[in-house]
Amino acid sequence: MIKKKSRDEIKRMRKAGHIVALVHAEIKDKLKAGMTTKDLDDIAMDVIHKNKAIPTFLGYNGFPASICTSVNEQIVHGIPSKDVILEEGDIISVDVGATYGGLVGDSAWTHPVGQISEEKQRLLKVTEESLFAGLQYMKDGCVLDDVQKAIEAVANREKLGIVRQYGGHGVGHVMHEEPFVFNYSVGNMLPLKSGMTIAIEPMLNLGGDDVIVMPDKWTVVTKDKQPSAHFEHTVLVTEDGPDILTKLMEE
Protein backbone atom coordinates (compact mmCIF):
# COMPACT_ATOMS: atom_id res chain seq x y z
CA MET A 1 0.00 0.00 0.00
CA ILE A 2 1.33 3.43 -0.97
CA LYS A 3 0.97 6.00 1.80
CA LYS A 4 0.24 9.61 0.91
CA LYS A 5 1.73 12.08 3.37
CA SER A 6 -0.07 14.74 5.38
CA ARG A 7 1.04 18.36 5.49
CA ASP A 8 2.73 17.75 8.87
CA GLU A 9 4.51 14.62 7.61
CA ILE A 10 5.77 16.51 4.56
CA LYS A 11 7.03 19.31 6.81
CA ARG A 12 9.10 16.80 8.80
CA MET A 13 10.33 15.09 5.63
CA ARG A 14 11.42 18.45 4.28
CA LYS A 15 13.44 19.05 7.46
CA ALA A 16 14.96 15.56 7.21
CA GLY A 17 15.81 16.27 3.56
CA HIS A 18 17.40 19.59 4.50
CA ILE A 19 19.66 17.76 6.96
CA VAL A 20 20.61 15.26 4.25
CA ALA A 21 21.43 18.17 1.93
CA LEU A 22 23.58 19.74 4.67
CA VAL A 23 25.57 16.49 4.88
CA HIS A 24 26.14 16.45 1.12
CA ALA A 25 27.21 20.11 1.15
CA GLU A 26 29.68 19.52 3.99
CA ILE A 27 31.16 16.45 2.33
CA LYS A 28 31.46 18.21 -1.03
CA ASP A 29 33.25 21.11 0.66
CA LYS A 30 35.75 18.92 2.55
CA LEU A 31 36.27 16.06 0.09
CA LYS A 32 39.86 15.64 -1.10
CA ALA A 33 42.44 13.01 -1.91
CA GLY A 34 43.98 11.42 1.17
CA MET A 35 40.76 11.30 3.15
CA THR A 36 39.30 7.97 4.18
CA THR A 37 35.69 7.00 3.66
CA LYS A 38 35.47 6.75 7.45
CA ASP A 39 36.34 10.46 7.60
CA LEU A 40 33.26 11.13 5.47
CA ASP A 41 31.11 9.00 7.74
CA ASP A 42 32.34 10.99 10.75
CA ILE A 43 31.39 14.25 8.99
CA ALA A 44 27.92 12.92 8.24
CA MET A 45 27.34 11.65 11.76
CA ASP A 46 28.34 15.03 13.20
CA VAL A 47 26.01 17.02 10.92
CA ILE A 48 23.07 14.67 11.50
CA HIS A 49 23.42 14.70 15.28
CA LYS A 50 23.95 18.47 15.45
CA ASN A 51 20.62 18.86 13.69
CA LYS A 52 18.81 16.59 16.17
CA ALA A 53 18.24 13.81 13.66
CA ILE A 54 19.09 10.12 13.51
CA PRO A 55 21.27 8.48 10.82
CA THR A 56 18.70 6.28 9.08
CA PHE A 57 21.20 3.78 7.68
CA LEU A 58 23.02 3.02 10.95
CA GLY A 59 21.91 -0.41 12.10
CA TYR A 60 19.50 -0.88 9.16
CA ASN A 61 19.55 -4.65 8.63
CA GLY A 62 22.86 -4.55 10.49
CA PHE A 63 24.54 -1.85 8.34
CA PRO A 64 27.47 -0.56 10.44
CA ALA A 65 27.73 3.11 9.36
CA SER A 66 25.69 6.29 8.98
CA ILE A 67 26.23 6.67 5.21
CA CYS A 68 27.16 4.50 2.23
CA THR A 69 30.40 5.34 0.42
CA SER A 70 30.90 3.61 -2.93
CA VAL A 71 34.14 4.28 -4.82
CA ASN A 72 34.68 3.91 -8.60
CA GLU A 73 33.28 0.50 -9.65
CA GLN A 74 31.32 0.23 -6.40
CA ILE A 75 27.69 1.04 -7.15
CA VAL A 76 25.88 1.17 -3.81
CA HIS A 77 26.10 0.14 -0.15
CA GLY A 78 29.85 0.61 0.25
CA ILE A 79 30.82 0.54 3.93
CA PRO A 80 32.93 3.48 5.18
CA SER A 81 36.36 2.36 6.39
CA LYS A 82 39.56 3.92 7.69
CA ASP A 83 41.35 1.56 5.27
CA VAL A 84 39.75 3.05 2.13
CA ILE A 85 41.82 6.09 1.19
CA LEU A 86 40.53 8.31 -1.61
CA GLU A 87 42.89 9.09 -4.47
CA GLU A 88 43.01 11.82 -7.09
CA GLY A 89 40.82 10.79 -10.01
CA ASP A 90 38.42 8.63 -7.99
CA ILE A 91 34.68 9.13 -7.98
CA ILE A 92 32.67 8.41 -4.84
CA SER A 93 28.93 7.93 -4.46
CA VAL A 94 27.72 9.11 -1.06
CA ASP A 95 24.25 7.93 -0.01
CA VAL A 96 22.77 9.69 3.03
CA GLY A 97 19.63 9.08 5.06
CA ALA A 98 18.42 11.14 8.04
CA THR A 99 15.34 10.59 10.19
CA TYR A 100 13.77 13.67 11.78
CA GLY A 101 10.59 13.51 13.81
CA GLY A 102 10.05 9.94 12.64
CA LEU A 103 10.24 10.81 8.91
CA VAL A 104 13.06 9.99 6.50
CA GLY A 105 15.00 11.96 3.91
CA ASP A 106 17.18 9.96 1.50
CA SER A 107 19.55 11.27 -1.17
CA ALA A 108 22.72 10.20 -2.97
CA TRP A 109 25.28 12.12 -4.99
CA THR A 110 28.44 11.09 -6.82
CA HIS A 111 31.43 13.39 -6.35
CA PRO A 112 34.75 13.68 -8.16
CA VAL A 113 37.92 13.48 -6.09
CA GLY A 114 40.09 16.18 -7.64
CA GLN A 115 40.48 15.98 -11.42
CA ILE A 116 38.76 13.01 -13.03
CA SER A 117 38.86 11.57 -16.54
CA GLU A 118 36.58 12.83 -19.32
CA GLU A 119 34.73 9.51 -19.32
CA LYS A 120 34.04 9.75 -15.60
CA GLN A 121 32.91 13.36 -16.07
CA ARG A 122 30.48 12.18 -18.75
CA LEU A 123 29.21 9.41 -16.48
CA LEU A 124 28.45 11.85 -13.66
CA LYS A 125 26.85 14.41 -15.98
CA VAL A 126 24.61 11.90 -17.71
CA THR A 127 23.55 10.08 -14.52
CA GLU A 128 22.55 13.38 -12.92
CA GLU A 129 20.72 14.30 -16.13
CA SER A 130 18.82 10.99 -16.02
CA LEU A 131 17.69 11.75 -12.46
CA PHE A 132 16.16 15.07 -13.47
CA ALA A 133 14.71 13.56 -16.64
CA GLY A 134 12.78 11.15 -14.43
CA LEU A 135 11.86 13.77 -11.84
CA GLN A 136 9.96 15.90 -14.35
CA TYR A 137 7.24 13.22 -14.46
CA MET A 138 6.73 13.19 -10.69
CA LYS A 139 3.41 14.98 -10.92
CA ASP A 140 -0.25 14.17 -10.56
CA GLY A 141 -1.58 12.53 -13.71
CA CYS A 142 1.62 10.76 -14.74
CA VAL A 143 2.31 7.07 -14.18
CA LEU A 144 5.39 5.47 -12.64
CA ASP A 145 6.59 4.10 -15.97
CA ASP A 146 6.88 7.66 -17.32
CA VAL A 147 9.64 8.19 -14.74
CA GLN A 148 11.31 4.86 -15.52
CA LYS A 149 11.19 5.40 -19.31
CA ALA A 150 12.75 8.85 -19.00
CA ILE A 151 15.72 7.51 -17.01
CA GLU A 152 16.21 4.63 -19.43
CA ALA A 153 16.05 6.92 -22.47
CA VAL A 154 18.94 9.06 -21.21
CA ALA A 155 21.04 5.98 -20.38
CA ASN A 156 20.37 4.40 -23.76
CA ARG A 157 21.12 7.61 -25.63
CA GLU A 158 24.56 7.73 -24.03
CA LYS A 159 25.11 3.94 -24.22
CA LEU A 160 25.55 3.56 -20.46
CA GLY A 161 24.82 0.41 -18.48
CA ILE A 162 21.74 0.43 -16.23
CA VAL A 163 21.80 -1.18 -12.78
CA ARG A 164 18.70 -3.37 -12.89
CA GLN A 165 18.69 -5.09 -9.49
CA TYR A 166 18.50 -1.86 -7.45
CA GLY A 167 16.41 1.28 -7.81
CA GLY A 168 14.24 3.90 -6.21
CA HIS A 169 11.46 3.44 -3.68
CA GLY A 170 8.76 5.07 -1.68
CA VAL A 171 10.05 6.74 1.46
CA GLY A 172 8.50 8.24 4.59
CA HIS A 173 8.07 6.66 8.01
CA VAL A 174 10.61 4.03 6.95
CA MET A 175 13.36 4.17 4.37
CA HIS A 176 11.81 1.68 1.97
CA GLU A 177 8.10 1.96 1.26
CA GLU A 178 6.12 1.02 -1.83
CA PRO A 179 6.49 1.43 -4.76
CA PHE A 180 9.80 0.09 -6.08
CA VAL A 181 11.10 2.26 -8.94
CA PHE A 182 13.10 0.59 -11.69
CA ASN A 183 15.55 2.65 -13.73
CA TYR A 184 14.14 1.25 -16.96
CA SER A 185 10.66 0.69 -18.35
CA VAL A 186 8.72 -2.29 -17.01
CA GLY A 187 5.27 -1.08 -18.01
CA ASN A 188 4.24 -0.07 -14.47
CA MET A 189 1.11 2.05 -14.94
CA LEU A 190 0.75 3.00 -11.27
CA PRO A 191 -0.84 6.49 -11.20
CA LEU A 192 1.24 9.11 -9.42
CA LYS A 193 -0.89 11.11 -7.00
CA SER A 194 -0.27 14.29 -5.02
CA GLY A 195 1.06 13.46 -1.57
CA MET A 196 3.18 10.50 -2.61
CA THR A 197 6.86 10.72 -1.58
CA ILE A 198 9.30 8.67 -3.63
CA ALA A 199 13.10 8.46 -3.88
CA ILE A 200 14.22 8.39 -7.51
CA GLU A 201 17.77 7.07 -7.86
CA PRO A 202 19.32 6.12 -11.18
CA MET A 203 22.56 4.12 -11.06
CA LEU A 204 24.39 4.05 -14.39
CA ASN A 205 27.65 2.37 -15.44
CA LEU A 206 30.34 3.14 -18.01
CA GLY A 207 30.28 -0.56 -18.89
CA GLY A 208 27.59 -3.21 -18.78
CA ASP A 209 24.58 -3.82 -16.56
CA ASP A 210 25.83 -6.82 -14.57
CA VAL A 211 26.66 -6.49 -10.87
CA ILE A 212 28.19 -8.58 -8.09
CA VAL A 213 27.61 -8.41 -4.33
CA MET A 214 30.93 -8.56 -2.48
CA PRO A 215 31.69 -10.98 0.40
CA ASP A 216 30.78 -8.30 2.99
CA LYS A 217 27.20 -8.89 1.74
CA TRP A 218 26.70 -5.12 1.32
CA THR A 219 28.98 -3.60 -1.30
CA VAL A 220 27.66 -3.94 -4.86
CA VAL A 221 30.17 -3.59 -7.72
CA THR A 222 30.04 -3.70 -11.51
CA LYS A 223 30.97 -7.13 -12.82
CA ASP A 224 33.26 -5.63 -15.48
CA LYS A 225 34.89 -3.27 -12.91
CA GLN A 226 33.86 -0.16 -14.87
CA PRO A 227 32.95 2.98 -12.88
CA SER A 228 29.38 3.58 -11.72
CA ALA A 229 27.50 6.72 -10.64
CA HIS A 230 24.46 7.16 -8.38
CA PHE A 231 22.23 10.22 -8.00
CA GLU A 232 19.09 10.35 -5.85
CA HIS A 233 16.50 12.78 -4.50
CA THR A 234 13.44 12.25 -2.33
CA VAL A 235 10.55 13.90 -4.15
CA LEU A 236 6.96 14.87 -3.32
CA VAL A 237 4.42 14.40 -6.11
CA THR A 238 2.22 17.50 -6.57
CA GLU A 239 -0.30 18.72 -9.13
CA ASP A 240 2.24 21.30 -10.31
CA GLY A 241 5.19 18.93 -10.63
CA PRO A 242 8.01 17.52 -8.51
CA ASP A 243 8.86 19.07 -5.15
CA ILE A 244 12.39 18.01 -4.20
CA LEU A 245 12.52 17.43 -0.44
CA THR A 246 16.25 16.62 -0.15
CA LYS A 247 17.55 20.11 -0.82
CA LEU A 248 18.65 22.98 1.37
CA MET A 249 15.75 24.95 2.82
CA GLU A 250 15.81 28.70 2.53
CA GLU A 251 16.82 30.34 5.78
Give keywords.
251 residues, four-stranded antiparallel β-sheet, globular, 4 helices, Creatine Amidinohydrolase
Describe this structure in words.
This protein has one domain (7-244): Alpha-Beta Complex (Creatine Amidinohydrolase). Helix content is 28%, strand content 25%. It has 4 helices and 15 strands. It has helices spanning 7-30, 37-50, 118-135, 144-157, and strands spanning 54-55, 67-71, 74-76, 91-100, 103-112, 161-162, 168-170, 177-181, 197-200, 203-205, 211-213, 220-222, 228-230, 233-236, 243-244. The strands form 4 sheets. It has a 5-stranded antiparallel β-sheet. Strands 1, 2, 4 and 5 form a 4-stranded antiparallel β-sheet that branches. The mean pLDDT is 97.
User: What CATH architecture would you give?
Assistant: Alpha-Beta Complex
Q: How is the CATH topology named?
A: Creatine Amidinohydrolase
Q: Mind summarizing the main beta sheet?
A: 5 strands, antiparallel
The residue ranges in which pLDDT falls below 50 over 5 or more consecutive positions are none
Radius of gyration: 17 Å
Compact summary:
With 251 residues, the protein is of the alpha+beta class. The chain has a single domain (7-244), classed as Creatine Amidinohydrolase. The protein has helices at residues 7-30, 37-50, 118-135, 144-157; strands spanning 54-55, 67-71, 74-76, 91-100, 103-112, 161-162, 168-170, 177-181, 197-200, 203-205, 211-213, 220-222, 228-230, 233-236, 243-244.
